[in-house]
Amino acid sequence: FLVDKGNHRHFMEKEIHEQPEVISHTLANYLDFAEGGVRAFEMPFDFGKIDRLAVSACGTAYLAGLIGKYWLERYARLPVDIDIASEFRYREMPLSKSSAALFVSQSGETADTLASLRYCRAQGVPIASIVNVRDSTIARESDGIFPTLAGPEIGVASTKAFTCQLAIFAALAARAGLQRGTLSDEEARRMVRALSEAPRYAAQALRLEGHIEKIARELSQVRHVLYLGRDTSYPLAMEGALKLKEISYIHAEGYAAGELKHGPIALIDESMPVIVIAPTDRIFEKTVSNMQEVAARGGRIILITDEAGAARASLDKFETIVMPTMPEFIAPIVYALPVQMLAYHTAVAMGTDVDQPRNLAKSVTVE
Ligand code: G6P
Fold first, then answer.
1. Interface predicted TM-score of the whole assembly (ipTM), two decimals
2. What global pTM score does this model have?
3. For residue 124, with 0-12 CB atoms within 10 Å meaning exposed, 13-18 middle and 19 or more buried, which class applies?
4. Which of 11, 52, 187, 318 is deepest in the core (most CB within 10 A)?
5. What CA–CA distance (Å, rounded) separates 101 from 43?
6. Has UniProt tagged this entry with the keyword Repeat (predicted)?
7. pLDDT tens for residues 60-86?
């Protein structure tokens, strides 16, 4: 079938804009919004009967898994091991009979992810996969799949598949919390309610595009960018850095804000912008102190936060991207959008081939 760009300049732009719709579509498969509960979708294992989950994936899918780890451990008290698939396949991790494995892949064909799956198969644990392509090899070789309903993703740098993977991890966290007895019905319902609002917040985030485009024009002039975040914003910081380097070829690193003192602070000066992802959550104040450390060294801060965060950050000189106020739980799904738009518009300002960046492939089917 034919997939076209519609009114968009690039597939990536189109795919960023499709997110409110595809996130909603994906969530509806796992959650019952009318009843406010989690659906009894098919699963190859029961979260109540396993004591560990091994997750592996590559690239952006790996970063979705990292956010999934925070959620599954926090809400379902399920220990999660997360690995880059090219490491997992060789590191000979012991898997007990009471564990399960979960793979994340847009294409379902990534060689290292598939090899990791086969390693787990040989260990005899139940295998599930979050995939966007239902008739892919990874889907076929799994005991059960959680399909993302993102539709075909053409841009090499993953966007809508990522937020749909997050949507599934969020739904899995609610399901796991119920099966493991760590969430009450009311708490799970609150999570479902929050998730039901994610598409609306994502649509609001898209309206910040004009402002983000302006910031991106400045960003296109620099050579290095540092992204910082804590908690679930930490993997998102890494995703921001990955997106930026993939499509704009600007060197970027994503760091846990608390690690600033252990290295990257040495790099801070006027020429390296620091993008801080910080919704007002339980540890917002900690991130504020990191921003003060950056500001004290002349670093330029671009803060992605909500209204309360923008007011509380009270620094002298910084740029803010002000997001709508939303439940903390869904923030990573929605905050992914400004992070993607920032990378996209920086690449457009630089004139790179956004949908087909040099040296990259959409699906890495060789090792
Ligand atoms: C490539 C793509 C990335 C993607 C990664 C994993 O590097 O450029 O966007 O995240 O592969 O692909 P998968 O299909 O397994 O999600």
1. 0.96
2. 0.97
3. exposed
4. 11
5. 12
6. yes
7. 999 999 999 999 999 999 999 999 999
Mutating to test ligand 1, I would choose from 360, 364, 367 the residue with most ligand atoms within 8 A of its C-beta, which is 364
Alpha helix (H) ranges present in the chain? 11-17, 19-30, 59-76, 85-91, 111-123, 137-141, 160-179, 185-206, 209-219, 233-248, 284-296, 307-313, 331-350
| Model pLDDT, residue 1 | 53
How far out from the chain centre does Cα 283 lie? 19
The one-letter code for the residue type at 156 is: V
329 alpha carbon to ligand 1 midpoint, in Å?
25
Please give the distance, rounded to the nearest whole angstrom, from the Cα atom of residue 365 to the centre of ligand 1.
Answer: 10
Identify the bridge partners of residue 320 per DSSP, sorted by sequence position. Answer: 303
Nearest CA to ligand 1 atom 7: 59
Roughly what angle, to the nearest 10 degrees, separates helices 19-30 and 160-179? 20
Residues 6+ apart with CB under 8 A from 148: 22, 26, 106, 130, 131, 132, 161, 164, 165, 167, 168
CA distance 53 to 99: 6
Q: Is 132 near ligand 1, meaning CB less than 6 Å away? A: no
Mutate-to-test residue for ligand 1 from 16, 62, 107, highest number of ligand atoms within 8 A of CB? 107
Contact 69, 169 (CB under 8 A): no
**d(C-alpha 27, C-alpha 349), whole Å:** 34
Q: Which atom of ligand 1 is nearest to the CA of 110?
A: 15
Q: Which atom of ligand 1 is nearest to the CA of 246?
A: 8
Binding site membership of 364 for ligand 1 (Cβ less than 6 Å)? yes
14 in active site: no
Q: What is the pLDDT of residues 336-358, one digit of tens each?
A: 999 999 999 999 999 998 998 98
For the Cβ of 148 lying below 6 angstroms from any atom of ligand 1, the answer is no
CA distance 75 to 187: 9
Protein residue with least CA distance to atom 15, ligand 1: 105
CA of 157, closest atom in ligand 1: 9
Rounded to whole angstroms, the Cα distance separating 2 from 53 reads 38
